[in-house]
Design goal:
The protein is an alpha/beta fold. The chain has helices at about 10-20, 25-30, 40-45, 55-65, 265-270, 285-290, 300-310, 335-345; strands at about 45-50, 80-85, 90-95, 100-105, 115-120, 135-140, 160-165, 170-175, 180-185, 195-200, 205, 210-220, 230, 240, 295, 325-330. Pfam families: F-box.
Length: about 350
């Protein structure tokens, strides 16, 4: 600790009092100052609840949200720290004024994570009362309990979802996400498949190992011209694809086209998919970023997937015609590959 840092050297009870006067978002950011500050904001702004079950914690969170009033909040009442009956798991649940609910299990004693699947289907069955908090953003950190998904159906106004450091998460399926416009998946090493169904998603940020992406939107691509779920991908405006955590080779990605693609009216042609198997639809993410304005990519993703498409001007699915910002995550891309992208998009960047 810096000896000239007189504030950090103050007793914790005084630091708690100082932290309680900060805006909630600013108080949370103090956790980045040092190791000593990491948990101070939680101790100052969250109530401790001991020897509780997961079901009781979920009910307490729902009750807290129902009675949340942004105008008359005590300055040190922004959520809970639940210590569960098993003595090993700790959940920090907090809500900010802008409607961001954060559920964080990272403070507990981490054991070998059990594999699990997360199936989220927000329902709009009942509108909240006027004084009920409308949760617009959900931040899940180190979630390892399936029961946490019971909270999501009660969040019909969810616009942003972030899932980070969920060690045992193997598959994520999001259905009927009609208002969700931002999805962030970070550092979930066991994730194998990600399926999204919605119409408003505009921002997708992913960091982890290569997973099977499948994005389904709503459009009139069918013969009957009805609005329905299709495989035409989404219209993302901001995307990040970081696959540096995986050991990837050129054979990892499958771009094989089905027989008679150009001449038959089969399922692949109608859905613009072209993947050899619907269970491993990697092409879906490429179709969804065809109209991005801001793109952040790693070298492997570009060289293995995007480069072969950009080099062919005949492919109408992928032209990056609206690209304004391009960010490289690493510098391992050779000059020739960079020129392919710049030549194709120099008029937009």
């Amino acid at each position: 600790m810096n000896p000239n840092d007189f504030i950090s050297n103050l007793p914790d009870n005084i630091l708690h009092h100082i932290t309680s006067y900060l805006p909630f978002e600013s108080a949370v950011r103090t956790s980045f100052l040092s190791t000593h500050w990491k948990h101070l904001w939680k101790e100052a702004l969250l109530d401790s609840v001991h020897d509780v079950t997961m079901e009781a914690a979920i009910k307490a969170i729902q009750s807290f949200l129902d009675g949340f009033d942004t105008h008359c909040r005590p300055r040190n009442k922004w959520g809970f720290i639940f210590e569960f009956s098993n003595g090993r798991n700790i959940l920090a649940a907090s809500i900010s004024r802008n409607g961001t609910l954060r559920l964080d299990f990272s403070a507990g004693k981490q054991e070998f994570p059990m594999p699990f699947d997360l199936d989220l289907k927000p329902l709009q069955t009942q509108l909240p009362y006027s004084n009920t908090m409308k949760v617009k953003s959900l931040y899940l950190v180190s979630v390892s309990h399936l029961s946490i998904s019971s909270l999501v159906p009660n969040l019909p106004f969810l616009e942003s979802l972030t899932i980070a450091k969920c060690e045992g998460l193997q598959s994520l399926q999001i259905k009927e996400a009609k208002v969700l416009h931002k999805l962030v998946i970070l550092d979930c090493p066991q994730l194998q498949s990600l399926s999204f169904e919605g119409s408003c998603l505009r921002c997708f940020r992913y960091r982890g190992k290569l997973a099977s992406f499948r994005f389904q939107g709503y459009c009139k691509c069918t013969t009957f011209r009805r609005i329905c779920i299709c495989e035409c991908g989404l219209f993302l405006k901001d995307a990040m694809i970081d696959l540096r955590q995986d050991s990837l080779t050129a054979g990892t990605w499958d771009f094989e086209k089905p027989p008679c693609y150009r001449y038959s009216c089969n399922l692949y042609k109608r859905t613009l998919c072209r993947c050899t198997t619907k269970k491993k639809c990697f092409k879906s993410i490429l179709i969804s970023i065809r109209s991005v304005k801001s793109l952040t990519i790693c070298g492997w993703f570009f060289e293995t997937s995007m480069c072969c498409l950009l080099s062919s001007s005949r492919d109408p699915l992928f032209c990056l015609s609206e690209l304004k910002e391009l960010w490289w995550i690493d510098c391992s891309i050779d000059r020739e590959s960079i020129n392919v992208l710049l030549c194709d998009t120099e008029s937009q960047i």
